[in-house]
Design a protein that fits this description.
Layout: E1 3-8, H1 14-23, E2 31-38, E3 41-47, H2 51-61, E4 67-73, E5 88-90, E6 104-112, H3 115-124, H4 134-145, H5 150-158, E7 163-171, E8 179-183, E9 188-191, E10 198-201, E11 214-216
Antiparallel strand pairs: 1-4, 1-10, 2-3, 2-4, 5-6, 6-7, 7-8, 9-10, 9-11
Helix pairs in contact: 1-2, 3-4, 4-5
Length: 217
């Protein structure tokens, strides 16, 4: 089963994300990745190796942020390759879309049963797909509905999804916000000390050491 870790706070939360992935390694995985908001832009590191190799990438790239999401993946839609690894970005529409910085970052557990139908609709609107995953479909769908309010966009997007899912979503335009949603797949909310930090995870074990206040969504 795939693993999700997300965090938002006032300190560098990247070590929390990577440590959370390490705590989820017992589930098994074939790829892993982390995305953060750094200097106003979404940036990510992804690997088809172990979380330790991802940690090395994060250190080399100097990823540091108070907002981020991370993921370990077992391949379902799409081979275990870097371009299919989470987190996935949406860059908007148009032929040059992938040359622009990503606006939406998303990680996902579960299977979206109507992903082919949604993909066709989004491609007709000009969205360019870089992976074979059903997850990238959700990222583009959220982007297509985004009008400055990430919570509202995610609410509208999940009403179009058929299947089971747990997601954590970021927007580069809302630097202090992370949105999660679930249907069928587990997702827990962790509340940090004084409510200054919040976490999302697919398993409470991923948040051991950072909070003991857990809400099962």
């Amino acid at each position: 089963m795939c693993g999700i870790v997300g965090a938002v706070g006032s300190r560098n939360i990247v070590p929390v994300l990577v440590e959370g992935l390490k705590r989820l390694e017992y589930r098994g995985y074939d790829s892993c990745g982390v995305a953060v908001l750094l200097d106003g832009q979404l940036q990510r590191a992804r690997s088809t190796s172990r979380v330790a190799e991802l940690q090395a990438q994060v250190d080399t790239d100097g990823l540091s942020s108070s907002l981020g999401i991370a993921h370990t993946r077992w391949a379902t839609h799409g081979a275990p390759a870097v371009h299919n690894a989470h987190p996935h970005f949406s860059h908007g529409t148009g032929a040059d879309a992938t040359q622009r910085p990503g606006r939406i970052a998303l990680v996902h557990n579960g299977i979206i049963e109507n992903h082919d139908e949604l993909r066709a609709q989004l491609q007709a609107r000009g969205y360019v797909f870089l992976s074979q995953t059903d997850t990238e479909v959700i990222a583009h769908l959220v982007d297509s509905l985004y009008d400055g309010d990430l919570f509202a966009a995610v609410q509208a997007a999940v009403q179009q999804l058929q299947g089971g899912y747990a997601i954590a979503v970021l927007s580069k335009d809302e630097p202090h916000r992370m949105v999660g949603a679930r249907a069928g797949s587990p997702l827990v909310l962790g509340v940090g000390a004084d409510g200054a930090e919040h976490f999302l995870a697919s398993d409470a074990m991923a948040l051991a050491g950072v909070t003991d206040q857990i809400v099962y969504l």
